[in-house]
Amino acid sequence: MKTIFLNFFNGIKKNYKTLILAFIIACGLWVVISVLTFDTITNKINNIDVITEPTAFMTQNNLQITSELDEKVSIVIEGKRYDISDLSAADFTAEVDLSTVRGAGVYSLPLKVTSKSSREVSITSTSPELVTVTLDEIISKEFPVQGTADITLPPEYYLGEITASPASITLTGSASIIQKITRVEAQSTRHGNISESLQTVSDIIVHSTGGVISEGLTFSDDIVTVNIPIYKQKELPLKFEITNVPQNFDLDSLKYKINPEKITIASPDDTIDNISELDIGNIDLSDITLNNKTNILPITLPDGYKNLSGNNSALIEWAVDDYGKLDFYVPRENIQINNKPNNFDISLITNQLKVTVIGPSERISEIKAADITATVNLLGAQLHEGSQDVAASVQIKGTQQTCWVSGEYTVTINAKSLGSGG
Fold it and tell me: How many other CB atoms are there within 10 angstroms of residue 182's CB atom?
């Protein structure tokens, strides 16, 4: 062992200059590495994204940021070289401090930058320190939807009311935007010539006092259908029927005017091609009187049809200025009872029946009471013991008659029960 130590020290004595040089170099390297690794440095980090996190107050009061936060943040950091030299924008967050917000408006708010890293780093400056933020109340409101279409039709067709489905939608957005909305339009994507009803998709266009709003809104329905009803139109003369006309009455002798004579209607299909006249109803002959020389009939159309002329009724004016009215007393022998039941003995109590006749003055003067007959039909009549009134049908004898009986009439009969064996 002694020999070993003697050899070691002898070696040192022989190479001491080399050892001293090695020691000096080692110390120098240690100083350089310490300076480069453990010294405190500053560094600038750019392009940090700005984020926002709504506060509880904002959530409770429907407040949202409506301005674009496209600003990038730069910071200067300080720390040991080995801690911060490789940090980048991804290692930091820049958040807007919204704690002071208490309502809608424009705010200059501070930015709070924090490090995501566990390393020791100090943020010495932030640029910008403040950002301008616009906050608004977010509301929802329902609006009716107006359907529109840029189309053309052949001459014989009519365009009905264009509607949208759904008929209304709810828009959600900034209160300042919602309050400026004037109407919501669903514009059909179909253009040009059409000749049949269509349902098409649409472009939703929101109009406001400042023009069309193209962003900042959400819709309760993203798809709105436009209904385009197409009708075929035609002008039709009006007609009506005169009812309860005796077989011997000359209907052509009764003249009248109808106003309007024609109307234009629109049909949802081609069935209108098979119609040449429009029947508007009936008038009972007995309802035509000299005290009331006009009748009014409503003009009604089937469901789906449209009255383009706008006339809701037609006025019928009877040409009866030279007509007269006379009362006649129909004698008992001209009153006939038909279909008498076997279980009753029927007798006529009425001795004469007063009736009113209307007709051309020169013809009505030729009529006599004996020319008028009354008929009672007991078929199906509910009879009871004793006297009762029953309806009578009255008419004037002769062919091609131009006068008629006005009004409704009854006669009184007596019914005496004959028992079930009658």
Answer: 10
